Amino acid sequence: MQVPAYAASRTGAPLEPFAVDRRDPRPDDVQMEILFCGICHSDVHQVRDEWGNGTFPMVPGHEIVGRVTAVGRGVKKFKVGDLAGVGCMVDSCGACEPCRRGTEQFCTQGVAFTYNSTEMDRRTPTYGGYSSAIVVKESFALRIPAGLDPAGAAPLLCAGITTYSPLRQWGVKAGQKVGVVGLGGLGHMGVKLARSRGADVTVFSTSPSKQKDAERLGATGFVATRDRDALKAQRGKFDFLLDTISAPHDIEAYLAMLRAGGTLVLVGMPPEPLSVGAGALISGNKRLAGSLIGGIAETQEMLDHCGEHHIVSDVEIVPIQKVNEAYDRMVKSDVKYRFSIDLASLRK
Predict the structure, then answer these.
(1) Among 50, 52, 202, 280, which is most exposed with the fewest C-beta within 10 angstroms?
(2) Residue 310: which residues within 8 A CB-CB, separation 6 or more?
(3) Angstrom distance (rounded) from CA 320 to CA 340
(4) What letter would DSSP give residue 177?
(5) CA 69 to centroid of chain Cα atoms
(6) What single DSSP character describes residue 324?
(7) For residue 100, what are the contacts with CB-CB under 8 A and spacing of at least 6?
(8) Model confidence over 228-285: pLDDT tens digits?
(9) What letter does residue 219 receive in the DSSP assignment?
């Protein structure tokens, strides 16, 4: 079937109306009408080909929540009318060691991303959630817990799992002192999720004006990082730091915030390498790590956790016709804290 969408026709081109061909559901497929799709900063990077290897025309979007409209005859987990989601991946080989252990994002054959990628046949292009419908394998569709606002739940499919996964991997728990570096689309989810695990959360931000928001989101501490004395006062106090910054910054200044044996995990992607001296790690047995989304099982676990704790992203809902304006505003950090596209606007 052919469905309406928005696509960039070439590098740097504005997103414009486009038509996407979606396959008829196979026996193991779920078809859904897309209700909302979050705008991730990676959408902007890829549409503008800032990471290279862009394939055009490109239909972005990997934070998808929709209503199931059809299922293949072999589908067991979903029925027509269910609320379902699609995140950053739509397929993998399913046979390699990472896939078998539930970390499909590291598939050795190369995972099929939701857009700017291909299906596992390496020929069929994938098109994302800035469209009215999608067809995906049941094993890569996710259950959206009842009671979660669909518009706010959409960004959980990327921003949520990106911040949940490192908190889970490194066992963040009640009684620990956690710092979230940066309060944007990722950072605000990091605060909510760390708080839901019982941690005492402090936000590090270059913007003092964000202190009230940090407290509203659940943080009990706030450090304006341009105040060097305030930053120095936090040295050696944290068990875990979640660094969400995508701009160049002094990583050693944050490693100094860790207690002995503490961990700093990067989930932001600065455009240039970060400089780290060995002494910043060796002194105190500190760890510097990175984390990339999560596998399908972990993503479902995150959604269930958010359903239990009533966690969604703070969103500003926009029609698809304002997506280019939303991109410009996102680059200027003019959103609190995530845009969610109402795809009903595409069907009008």
Answers:
(1) 52
(2) 147, 148
(3) 9
(4) E
(5) 25
(6) H
(7) none
(8) 999 999 999 999 999 999 989 999 999 999 999 999 999 998 888 999 999 999 999 9
(9) -
Considering just the CA atoms, what is the radius of gyration of the chain in Å? Answer: 20
What residue ranges of the chain have pLDDT lower than 70?
A: none
Tokens at residue 261, please? 């044996």
In eight-state DSSP terms, residue 144 is P
Q: Please give the single-letter amino acid code of residue 20.
A: V
What DSSP letter does each residue of 80-140 carry, written as one string?
TT-EEEE-SEEE--S-SHHHHTT-GGG-TT--EESSSSB-TTSSSBP--SSBSEEEEEGGG
Burial of 241 (0-12, 13-18, 19+ CB in 10 A): buried
What CA–CA distance (Å, rounded) separates 74 from 96? 24
String of DSSP letters for 224-280: ETT-HHHHHTTTT-EEEEEE---S---HHHHHTTEEEEEEEEE-S--SSPPP--HHH
User: Whose structure tokens read 């928001």?
Assistant: 213
Distance CA 337, CA 155 (A): 10
User: Cis peptide before 273, with omega less than 30 degrees from 0?
Assistant: no
Per-residue model confidence (pLDDT) at position 12? 85
Phi, psi of 301 (to 5 degrees): -60, -45
pLDDT at 271: 84
- Name residue 43's amino acid: D
Alpha helices (H) in 275-314, listed in sequence order: 278-282, 296-309
On whether the pTM is more than 0.85, the answer is: yes
Residue where the block lists tokens 């304002």: 322
Peptide bond preceding 115 in cis form (omega within 30 of 0): no
Sign of CA dihedral 326, 310, 346, 118: positive
